[in-house]
Predict the 3D structure of the following.
Amino acid sequence: MSSLNKNGLKCTAQLDVSADVADKIRQQKIEELKKNIQVPGYRPNKVPNSYIIKRFGDNLDKDVLEEVINKSFGELLAEHKVVPAHEPKETVESKEIGKPIKITYEFECLPQFKLVGKEDMQLEKPVVAANDDLIEKEIESLKKEFPVWAATKDVAKEGDKIKISYKCKVDDKPFNDDELMKAEAVLGKETLYPDLEKKLAGLKSGDVKKIDVKFQKDYPNPSLADKQAEFDVTVTEVEKSSPTKLDEAFIERALGQKKTEEEFRTIIKERIEKQIKDMLDVVMVERLQDCIIEKYNFDLPEALFKNELEARAGSKPDDEKEKMLALKIDSKDKDIVDIVKALRLGLVAAQYSEENSIEISEKELADFIVAFASSSGQSEEFLRWFIEDERRVMDARNRLLHQKSVEHMIEAYSKDGKEMKMPALEKLAKEIQSKES
């Protein structure tokens, strides 16, 4: 007789299945094979059992045992309403056709708990509107970003755009095959190497100058890092900016496409609304996590904690990694608190999705994977690699289901709070993100 014992979240399951269960299923499979096989000298469905066993024996027995064990173990888990939190450790005493199947499983199960009622999970959601003031502020910002440029004979100073052609020597050797290269920069923006950009100030169109630069040791280009370089620079043009007007030319510069002023304002409003939504998502997930920590007090499986701990520690330097891996689940360390929050949120979200029948459609999954693949920069190649592994696809489905469940919970539990200005929301979201990094 199969049995299951629990001690907290630790479970020991004893699977004990009589031999006749496997024998019966084995015979059913033999009869099915006899219907679908043709053997010279025998009429359909009259092939001897011995022939089927000889031809399919090992695979047949393997399939039978797998079916019996999976079905019996699944029924035992369902009877006790237990879900393993990880792959169970298996100790086999007997696992043969013709003998009782006896297997011991040791594992931790997921905690069992009831969802807290909606009335006890109220989350205050800041009210932030994409009003006319924000739209005008964004337009003014874009005007500064996309000014009108005009050539000048004056010397270049901060805020001016300077265009140069140059050759470069590194350690007295021609760089890049002594090719004449071109560059431009708005002084003060540091889009060129800072030391080079500073020495361009005070030059005017037509000036020629040799500029010495010492690159830093950590400069991204290894062929220039920690090297002495000489730039032979010719200033081809200096341009000054002037305020722009809200006209069709500016709109096209800012958007890269022609739009009317009304359409432009609508696009800007939608951008701001997207920014507000993204920041509110950060704030509300944090508030949902805090509320779950306050309202739920179930134990967490040690295996889940260790997996998450090892995953997060993997990105740390070796000395920090060792210290982090030594921490226990009840530690007040920031990283451990974050792990506990994330695990509790994940478990509550999983139960919420089950009780509220939240599912992921094939279209939602496909759109998610395609978007993820596109972000890699090699969409077709990445997409083929991604979908060839069922585990990756299942992981994508689970992540998407978690995200969707969290969104549903936030929507269900949220109530409008006080009005908040955009800068205050930005500050709040940045503070939360800085704590997570």
Summary: The CA atoms of residues 130 and 272 lie 6 Å apart. The first helix runs from residue 19 to 35. The mean pLDDT is 91. The domain at 148-242 is CATH 3.10.50.40 (Chitinase A; domain 3).
